[in-house]
Specification:
The radius of gyration is 26 Å and the shape is globular. Helices cover 35% and strands 23% of the residues. The strands form five sheets. It has a seven-stranded mixed beta sheet. By secondary structure, it is α+β, with helices and mostly antiparallel strands. Among the domains are: 36 residues, no CATH class; 271 residues, Phosphoribosyl-aminoimidazole Synthetase, Chain A, domain 2 (Alpha-Beta Complex); 165 residues, PurM-like C-terminal domain (Phosphoribosyl-aminoimidazole Synthetase, Chain A, domain 2, Alpha-Beta Complex).
């Protein structure tokens, strides 16, 4: 096998020869090539990811495992992670998205947790194009078909449209689950003499070299990549979940790893390397569903619904008995050793012999970074092009546009209530689920701001992270940790690497300043085609804890007669806002500069507002600014609102600017004094009242609530 066809560069192949003190054989070349691929090794981002804060008072397991785990209290851990399935979903939308859901669920199982909640981040192209309609339809149906059948509720998500995703849609799948702290599993606890057991589906040719496929740009003729797309079976996955939970409950597993990218190779080599062991695998013992598969095909297959278990020899019989009970294939395929070697045998003949370190300690690549030549063009903004001549029409346009309207057409295809622990599901800014057998709740926000990251990657990423945190603070939750999916173009071009580097810095600085550890994540690079690159798209999911779920402050609960307040500055920035993109056709200008000290003041007061129960409803100001936040609150509460603000600020800035620590609150009149006292020392403006059947903003606009609802729900007015 030619090393270049295995995805290795000249310098990498030279380094491999030096490490081995010989040339690798064709199988070894394939094995190393996949493990050194961008998708498996994170070689372009390793040093950047080390800048994330990883410690926190609730962190039990941070980066380096299948998923992060945080302490929910009362003996419960919460395992969570988000990862991408972008390239497969662009080529085969239904199966690509479905197997993305299945893969992330297995990451949660691998921590010993029962998968309990899923979310999805979807980024689609120009919604007027037939191509976008076809891709989005297949992707949404794939997520729904797999998630509904496997029985894990889809409790929320993010859907975003921009022409930059037309040829390269993004599918970021999030899953999480609860685990008793004494039942947590790990991929780092194997030892000499333990047996490597493959549980689940037989191995086929689907998904072969999928990790390498995801480590390069999409070809113009993407149909040629279809053999590299995995096929999922949610009913097999459901059996796999139940079997693994049973095995863990009975204490029959020493270690466990899901089979994702690079299949058997990555799962077995990672367990060996992380555990400080070696492993011997007999390729002929691996159950196959296709004849004539070569060893390299078997090791690189990404067939779905498989787990690698590490089992002590005296527990093998009950493991096989449980597998048989659930109707799952189960086979001993190897043994852990103390050799620190990764050895593959075929009918007793040694056909690959590598140090585990060469597969686990993958090299780093340091790419040059350069500010984009058009950065001044990106941040330039002409206020004269942004005048709001008809604020009422502009508001209706913003809440009816693809990024503003309700996504019920998507999430109504998902089962959000299976398992019966979802408190707040899709359509709410914050997903809320019960912590089993407690009065606690786990809260989740998913955010991404691609337009803002395009014009200024650092500030855009910082605002993305802060917005994710604000939603949890308003709800009253303590921050547990964050997982992120970094969707970017090729790191090999200096200007594109700059976008990646600055976005990570924006996330890291904000997390560090605002006490949010990063516990897990995923990197997806080479998201570009012949037609261009995607915008920098860091997506974050932040988890929060409410010790008493009755103190959750939700949105959409404004009551007739409530007083409305805006906390924070009256205006933010029109730069890269939803309004600016609507007016100019593409993002331009910068968002609000990060002010972490102000965010901390906001955090303290928002959490006290929820804890003291002085507000009926609270909502962060996000896409579309104050006007859209108020419109969304009116629609969700099914009540009119009446606003009056005396200000010399230009209408478009007052109504539609975005960014910064800002929120709207609806407060019962008898609690107004208490609310205002909490917010002393922070900008807090009384702006109106709740009631009637219109959205009235004095001297600005007057819209019937029914017309608002039609625009939001139907995308027209």
């Amino acid at each position: 096998m030619d090393y270049k066809s295995a995805g290795l560069s000249d310098s990498e192949y030279k380094r491999i020869n030096e490490l081995l003190e010989r040339e690798p054989n064709p199988l070894e070349t394939q094995l190393i090539g996949v493990m050194w691929s961008e998708h498996c090794s994170y070689k372009s981002t390793k040093r950047l990811l080390k800048t994330y804060p990883s410690k926190g008072k609730y962190v039990l397991q941070g980066q380096g495992e299948n998923a992060g785990v945080v302490d929910m209290g009362e003996g419960w851990g919460f395992a969570f992670k988000v990862e991408s399935h972008n390239h497969p979903s662009a080529v085969a939308p239904f199966q690509g998205a479905a197997t993305g859901v299945g893969g992330i669920i297995r990451d949660i199982i691998a921590m010993g947790a029962r998968p309990s909640v899923s979310m999805d981040g979807l980024f689609f192209g120009d919604p007027s194009l037939k191509k976008t309609e076809t891709l989005s339809k297949g992707i949404v149906e794939g997520i729904g078909a797999y998630g509904n059948a496997v029985g894990v509720p889809i409790a929320g998500g993010k859907t975003f449209y921009s022409p930059c995703y037309t040829d390269n849609p993004l599918v970021n799948a999030f899953s999480a689950g609860f685990v008793r702290l004494d039942k947590m599993a790990s991929s780092q606890t194997a030892k000499k003499g333990d047996l490597a057991v493959l549980l689940g589906s037989k191995t086929g040719r689907d998904g072969i070299a999928g990790a390498s496929f995801a480590s390069r740009e999409l070809d113009e003729d993407s149909k040629a990549s279809k053999p590299q797309i995995q096929i999922g079976d949610p009913f097999e996955e459901k059996l796999l979940i139940e079997c693994c939970m049973d095995l863990l409950e009975k204490g029959l597993i020493a270690s466990m790893q899901d089979m994702g990218a690079a299949g058997i190779l990555s799962s077995s080599s990672e367990i060996a390397h992380k555990s400080g062991c070696g492993i011997d695998i007999s390729v002929e013992k691996i159950p196959l569903r296709e004849k004539g598969m070569a060893p390299w095909e078997i090791f690189l297959s990404e067939s779905q619904e498989r787990m690698l278990l590490i089992v002590e020899e005296d527990k093998l019989d009950p493991v096989f008995a449980l597998a048989a009970h659930y109707g799952l294939d189960c086979a001993v395929v190897g043994m852990m050793t103390d050799s620190n070697r990764y050895r593959v045998y075929e009918n007793g003949e040694l056909i690959a012999d590598l140090p585990t370190s060469i597969l686990g300690d993958t090299p780093e690549v340091i790419w040059p970074s350069a500010e984009p030549a058009n950065i001044k063009e990106r941040i330039a903004i002409d206020p004269s092009n942004l005048k709001s001549i008809d604020p009422e029409n502009d508001l209706l346009s913003l809440i009816s546009c693809p990024n503003g309207r309700s996504k019920h057409g998507i999430w109504e295809q998902y089962d959000s209530m299976v398992q019966l622990h979802t408190i707040e599901g899709p359509g709410s800014p914050v997903a809320v689920v019960e912590v089993p057998d407690t009065e606690r709740a786990c809260l989740l926000t998913m955010e991404a701001e691609p337009n803002k990251c395009w014009t200024d990657p650092y500030m855009g990423a910082s605002e993305t992270m802060a917005l994710s945190l604000r939603g949890l603070w308003i709800s009253g939750a303590e921050i547990l940790g964050m997982t992120n999916c970094l969707n970017f173009a090729s790191p090999e071009a200096p200007e594109k690497f700059y976008e990646l580097e600055q976005s990570i810095k924006g996330l890291a600085d904000t997390c560090r300043s605002l006490d949010c550890p990063v516990v897990s994540g995923n990197v997806s690079l080479y998201n570009e085609t012949a037609s261009g690159q995607i915008y920098p798209t860091p997506l974050v999911v932040t988890a929060g804890l409410l010790k008493d779920r009755r103190k959750h402050l939700a949105s959409g609960n404004a009551g007739t007669g409530d007083t409305l307040y805006i906390v924070g500055n009256l205006c933010g920035s029109l730069g890269a806002s939803r309004y600016q993109v609507m007016k100019n056709g593409k993002p331009a200008g910068k968002t609000v500069r990060p002010d972490h000290d102000k965010e901390k003041l906001f955090r303290e007061r928002a959490m006290k507002t929820a804890a003291d129960g002085v507000a009926s409803s609270g909502r962060a100001v996000a896409g579309g600014g104050i006007a859209v936040a108020l419109a969304n609150e009116a629609i969700a509460s099914d009540r009119g609102i009446n606003i009056e603000i005396n200000s010399s600020i230009a209408a478009e800035e007052l109504l539609f600017s975005e960014g910064g620590a800002r929120a709207i609150y609806a407060v019962p009149k008898e609690k107004a004094d208490s609310f205002e006292k909490i917010w002393e020392g922070f900008p807090c403006t009384e702006i109106g009242t709740v009631g009637g059947d219109k959205f009235e903003w004095k001297d600005m606009l007057s819209v019937d609530l029914s017309k608002l609802k039609k625009a939001f729900l139907e995308g027209c007015f």
